[in-house]
Specification:
Number of strands: 7
Bound molecules: S-adenosylmethionine
Radius of gyration: 20 Å
Protein name: Loganic acid O-methyltransferase
Largest sheet: 7 strands, mixed
Organism: Camellia lanceoleosa
CATH superfamily of one domain: Vaccinia Virus protein VP39
Number of helices: 8
CATH architecture of one domain: 3-Layer(aba) Sandwich
Helix content: 25-40%
């Protein structure tokens, strides 16, 4: 795998589809439900002039096909409605417009045909990479993304360069490779996050917020202790076995690198502060889940 990364999860609702194989992700979404409610109660100022249009616009970046995105969006809408109730503003309850974003090759047909029939929002699809602008300036009140920012925008070039110290020969991921290779992944993640924050800062209204759920691990944990490490190791070994059996050649393994990166609270804090567009209101690590909440 090389170049820009643009491939979606398995669509449809068959046995191998994302919708039937994303329990891990939905468990995290449910785990943070109360945190999101608290964050919206504390930080989402529905009385500010930015909320005066009576339409609240929310985007899910890297939504895939559902049902996870529908569950996450329902949780967010309930939290916002509760916020209006708690302020005795029920007569001013807004309408909601939800934007479901993913790569153009995402199975948007499945997404749209399975939209909850009882939904209380207007739905729209937005194709394209979130490592770039997706919305007009100052148009979105709340940005949400879960389990998508671990995908780098591209495989770092050094991994494929046999003249570089970071040439990833025979390996497919940094968690099972040398420090030089891990550094190259970290540098790509830093660049990608900067691009992501700059685009979102343009698009979010003043007083809006961003909720990010990302795979990660606690500060100080070594890359090799990443809980996904045994999976990457087994995957790598299988490819090397296939080389031995003559099913694929060595060059194909050398050119295959998984563009996946898991961050830590310390690293995220550094990247957010260096970028300067957002403040971190709350960030927590749940077992092997890492859940930053950022507000513009
Ligand atoms: C593991 S799925 C997560 C889906 C859903 N958010 C959830 O929590 O279950 C990751 C999704 O992010 C999307 N994705 C990855 N990189 C992206 C990018 N640069 N722009 C838009 N979507 C992206 C993938 O296509 C995929 O559908």
């Amino acid at each position: 795998m090389s170049g820009n990364v643009e491939f979606p999860m398995n669509g449809g609702d068959g046995a191998n589809s994302y919708s039937k194989n994303s329990r891990y992700q939905v468990e995290a979404i449910n785990l943070v439900k109360e945190m999101i409610k608290e964050a919206i109660a504390k930080n989402f100022d529905v009385t500010s002039p930015s909320f005066s249009s009576n339409t609240i616009r929310i985007a899910d970046l890297g939504c895939s096909v559902g049902p996870n995105t529908f569950i996450a969006m329902k949780n967010i809408l309930e939290a916002i409605e509760w916020r209006y109730h708690s302020k005795n503003l029920t007569s001013e309850m807004p309408e909601f417009q939800l934007f479901f974003n993913d790569h153009a090759y995402n199975d948007f047909n499945t997404l749209f045909t399975t939209l909850p029939p009882d939904r209380q929002y207007f739905a729209a699809g937005v194709p394209g990479s979130f490592y770039g602008r997706l919305f007009p300036k100052s148009s979105i009140h709340l940005m949400y993304s879960s389990f998508a920012l671990q995908w780098l925008s591209k495989v770092p070039e050094e991994l494929l360069d046999n003249g570089s110290l970071a040439w990833n020969k025979g390996k497919i991921h940094y968690t099972i490779a040398s420090k030089e290779i891990a550094d190259v992944y970290a540098a790509q993640f830093a660049k990608d996050m900067d691009t992501f924050f700059n685009a979102r800062a343009d698009e979010i209204i003043v007083g809006g917020m961003m909720i990010l759920i990302m795979p990660g691990f606690a500060d100080g944990v070594q890359y090799s202790q990443d809980p996904s490490c045994p999976f990457f190791y087994a995957f790598n070994q299988s490819l090397l076995d296939m080389v031995k059996l003559g099913m694929i050649n060595e060059d194909e393994v050398d050119s295959f690198n998984l563009p996946l990166y898991a961050t830590s609270p310390k690293e995220m804090t550094k990247l957010v502060e260096r970028n300067g567009c957002f403040n971190i209101e709350r960030m927590e690590v749940f077992a092997d889940y890492n859940i930053p909440l950022l507000q513009s």
